[in-house]
Amino acid sequence: MTLKMPQPEAAVLARRAAIVAALRRIVPGEGVIADPDGLRPFESDGLTAYRQPPMVVVLPETTEQVSQVLRWCHDEGVKVVPRGSGTSLSGGALPLADGVLLGLSKFNRVLEVDYDDRLAVVQPGVTNLAVTQAVEARGFYYAPDPSSQIACSIGGNVAENSGGVHCLKYGLTTNNVLGVELVMMDGEIVRLGGRHLDAAGLDLLGVVVGSEGLLGVVTEVTVRILPKPEGARALLIGFPSVESAGQCVADVIAGGIIPAGMEMMDRLAIEAAEAFVKVGYPLDVDALLIVELDGVGAECDHLIDEVTRIAEANGSTTLSASRDEAERLAFWAGRKAAFPAVGRISPDYYCMDGTIPRRRLPDVLERMAQLSAKYGLGVANVFHAGDGNLHPLILYDANKPGELDRAEAFGSDILRLCVEVGGVLTGEHGVGVEKRDLMPDMFGEEDLAQQQRVKCAFDPKGLLNPGKVFPTLHRCAELGRMHIHRGQVPHPDLPRF
C-alpha cells in the first residue's frame, strides 16, 4: 500500500481508553465498538485495496447524540470520519488509526412523505432503493439510482453526489436534494435548504452535496420524489466497435433526444454480465448500448423509431426493443450486475470513475486499450455513456506481487487521460483517497487553496475526515492570512463566514 495518510497522533492514541469511556457516556449500550474483532468490519469501504482499523466506532441513534459526539471530539482535538453504508469506491470512509469512525447505519427511517409537495424526508442511513420502495405504491419514485442502490445510503449519496443510470435525464443527487440537517464539527445543528425548490442567498446546500464528509455530518435529508412516467421502454443495441457505439451516443444527444438512461458496455463486460444474469445479451458484438426512453406511449414509440434510425445509420448489428416491463428490467439487469459479474472472471478488480466529453469516447477507449497492453492488465468498460461518465474495471490479482501497484498506476493514467481530453477526475464516486494525489493534475495551487478555505470555514480545526480529497494538508491559519490595509479587509461588501 503506497497511500499515505496523516501520521497518527501518539498523544491521542495514549488517551484511547478515556476516549472510549467518554463516547460510551454519550452513546450508551451497544453504541460504541472498541474490541479488535468488532472493529474489523469497518477497516475499509468499497475500495478494499486500502485498509485501516479505526481507533473506535460509535453508532449514534439521534441527531443530539451526533451533536454531542462531534462537540466532544472538537473540544478534545479528536478526528472523526463519517461513514454511511461503506459502499464508497474512492476510500472516502477509510478510517484513521487515531480517529473516531462515526457510523450512521442506525439512522434508517423514512420520516415523512409529502405527495402534494412531491418530497420525502429521510434519515441518512436509509438505502437509496428504500426511498423508491416507500413511495412506489402511490406511483412515485426517487430518480438517482446508483448500481449499488440496494445497499448504498442516502447520506453516502449526498456525500459523493451519486448518480446512476437515470441521471442523464433526471440529474445527480444534487439535483434531487431539497434540504439537509447538518451537524457541524463543533456540534452546532443547522438546516440548509428545506421543502422548497431553491433557497435564497449563498448556495450552501450545493456546497455540502458532494463534500465527502469534510464539512459536516448529515443527519436528515429532504429529497424530491417524481411520479413514474406513463411508460418506459428500453432498446438493446449491439455494435461492431466501441467507436460506432460512441458515435451513436453523440448523434442521439445531438438529435435533441434525452433518454432516461443510456449505458454502454464493451465486449468483456458484456460477456461477464451475460454469463452472470443470462438475459440474452448478444455475444457477437464489441459494444452494447442500453437506451431507455420514457413518457406517454406515443412519445416512447416515436423516440424508439428515432433512436433506431440513428443506430442503424451508425452500423448497429443487433437491436431489440423491450415488449413489456419484465423485459425492460431484464435489459437493465445485466448492466446493474456488471460489477459483481466482473468479479467472477477476475480475483480482484479496481473500479475507476472519470468523466470525459462524449465526443472523445472513441479516442479515450483506444488510449485505454494501449494502456491495458502497457501494464499487462485487462480492463472491462462500463459507462454512463450519455453524460460521459466512465467506469473502467481494471482486472488484477492482489496475490501476485506488483499487480496492485500496476493496477493503481493504470488507473492513475486513465484519470490523467480524462483530464487531458477536457474531462474531470470523478463523475460520482468522489475523490476520497483514491484520486487525492491527482488533484494537482486538474487544479492549480490557487484553486486547491480556495477549496481548502471552504473546508476551513466549516471545520477550522480540520478534524472532519482529514487525509481525504486534498493532496497537501494546510492548517487553516496558513490559508487564512489576509492583508488588512488601515483596518479594512479586501472587498468588504462580500458576505463572509
Automatic annotation (TrEMBL):
InterPro entries: FAD-bd_oxidored_4_C, FAD-bd_PCMH, FAD-bd_PCMH-like_sf, FAD-bd_PCMH_sub2, FAD-linked_Oxase-like_C, FAD-linked_OxidoTrans_Type4, Oxid_FAD_bind_N, Vanillyl_alc_oxidase_C-sub2
UniProt keyword annotation of Flavoprotein present: yes
Cofactor names: FAD
One Pfam family from the record: FAD-oxidase_C
PROSITE patterns linked: FAD_PCMH
Gene3D superfamilies per the UniProt record, alphabetical: 3.30.465.10, 3.30.70.2740, Vanillyl-alcohol Oxidase, Chain A, domain 4
The FAD-binding PCMH-type domain, residue ranges: 50-228
GO MF annotation, one: FAD binding
Keywords in alphabetical order: FAD, Flavoprotein, Oxidoreductase
PANTHER family (UniProt xref): GLYCOLATE OXIDASE SUBUNIT GLCD
Protein name: Glycolate oxidase
Biological source species: Hephaestia caeni
